[in-house]
Design brief:
13 strands; alpha/beta; ABC transporter ATP-binding protein; six-stranded mixed β-sheet
Length: about 300
């Protein structure tokens, strides 16, 4: 399978600031990719280079086998910046139809495409509205519809659900999951729990360096369970350590515990033992996760 995106030895400087430092990774068609990192880590610079908005100082960047931004590939990659805005002067229909025509569709085809993408985000009834009549969340969903015009092979979404209420955020996550069989999404977000639900691979940038690039899996010899309690329990760690399969318990943050253990097929499954322990001691737990959370995989 040929790679959709290949990056090797990528460097970008802004004056003396080394914004991207020898970045290397490959993205093939498949599950959504999480792009994670603190503010100033280089995420926006990397996405801008992939889109062809800016050029690197050195290194190789290939998108669909060509340089980023090549005219013939413009309709194959779409990007939604976090601060994307709609023109308040024109209706949603006119704006989306215009964007579709820019991709080579006839006017009649473009109108149908505008309706199709608005229907994907649940806003087909607002097609003739102007942006000023829509809520912030609805305008955000319109910009996501814009990014989906022409069924691009790669879609880059920067903070796609920021500002959306929980229901609409869930709808967007469901849409990404539904379309992932034919579209490769690159998702940048500060909401690690959201990325964890959608992505199996993560690119973690820090100070311009790619600190981690891996598939989110656990090792085969040692397993992990994440336990979130309703309240802090001082005697929880000693009690967990009494379970024979447990090798380590770490209090990763308030009321959250990362439990590492070895599998023993002759014993009752550890998650069952933990639930029994909580029941016996009348401890209220909020969540038991088989494996590490994305946050723990990155920082613990």
């Amino acid at each position: 399978m040929s790679a959709l995106i290949e990056v090797s030895g990528l460097n970008k400087f802004y004056g003396e600031k080394h914004a991207l430092n020898n970045i290397e990774f490959t993205i093939n068609k498949g599950e959504p990719i999480a792009l994670v990192g603190p503010n100033g880590a280089g995420k926006t610079t990397l996405l801008s280079i992939l889109c062809g908005y800016i050029k690197p100082c050195s290194g190789k960047v290939s998108v669909f086998g060509d340089e980023p931004g090549k005219r013939g590939n413009l309709s194959r990659l779409a990007a939604l910046p976090q601060d994307a805005q709609l023109d308040p002067r024109f209706s949603i229909a006119k704006q989306l139809t215009f964007y579709a025509q820019l991709q080579g569709l006839t006017k009649s085809q473009a109108k149908l495409e505008a309706y199709r993408t608005l229907k994907l985000v649940g806003l087909e009834d607002s097609i003739n509205s102007k942006p000023s009549t829509l809520s912030h969340g609805m305008r955000k969903r319109v910009t996501i519809a814009q990014a989906l015009i022409g069924e691009p092979e790669i879609v880059i979404l920067d903070e796609a659900t920021a500002g959306l209420d929980p229901h609409n955020a869930r709808e967007i996550r469901s849409l990404v999951a539904e379309l992932s069989s034919q579209t490769t999404f690159i998702l940048s977000s500060h909401d690690l729990s959201e990325l964890e639900r959608l992505c199996n691979r993560v690119l973690y940038l820090e100070d311009g360096c790619l600190q981690q690039h891996h598939t989110l899996t656990n090792s085969t010899d040692t397993q992990f369970i994440t336990l979130r309690m309703a309240q802090q329990q001082d005697d929880l760690i000693p009690a967990l350590n009494q379970l024979s399969q447990v090798t380590q318990v770490i209090n990763t943050q308030d009321k959250e515990y990362l439990i590492s253990f070895n599998i023993n097929e002759s014993e009752v499954a550890l998650d069952v033992q933990i639930l029994q322990l909580c029941h016996q001691n009348a401890w209220l737990y909020r969540q038991l996760i088989n494996g590490k959370t994305l946050e723990n995989q990155l920082f613990n």
